[in-house]
Amino acid sequence: MKAIGPQIPLQRDEVFGQFSLITTYREEIKQNFKNLLLTAPGEKMMNPDFGVGLRNFLFDPRQATIINIRQKIQEQVTKYMPFIVNLKVNFDRNKPEDTLPDSNILSLTIIYDVPSLNISSELLAIKEELN
Questions:
Q1: From 3.10.450.40, 2.30.40.10, 3.40.50.450, 3.30.2000.30, which CATH number describes the 32-129 domain?
Q2: pLDDT, greater one: 71 or 4
Q3: Per-position b or e across 20-43, b if 16+ CB within 10 A of its CB
Q4: What pTM did the predictor assign?
Q5: What's the Rg (C-alpha) of the chain?
Q6: Are strands 5-6 and 85-91 parallel, antiparallel or unpaired?
Q7: Rounded to whole angstroms, how far apart are CA atoms 101 and 70?
Q8: Contact assessment for residue 109 and residue 30, using Cβ atoms and an 8 Å cutoff
Q9: What's the gap between Cα 46 and its chain centre?
């Protein structure tokens, strides 16, 4: 079995050498997607536009946050992960509609496809308290 890249966070593992490695494209894409979501713009050296910066939205008003997160994810995926299609960004899945405006927790689920590798996957990106 060949390795594709290091698993982040780095963990000691003697199977492939010193560190755990990712062995499937599904897991590599998911890890790269998480990196894109959590990296704040300006944080990556030599590429100041890279990243959604989900943590930057933590204390924004709920309605503005939902619109801005969805837009930023779409922009970043289009630019840095163009092989991802059928991107769906869902907020507060499995919660009653009438409780959403007063909720201070925002959960974000991203559903996506990578047709060139025949991959369909889901990523639970954030579940944090908002102001």
A1: 3.10.450.40
A2: 71
A3: bbbbeeeebbbbbbeebbebeeee
A4: 0.82
A5: 16
A6: unpaired
A7: 17
A8: no
A9: 21
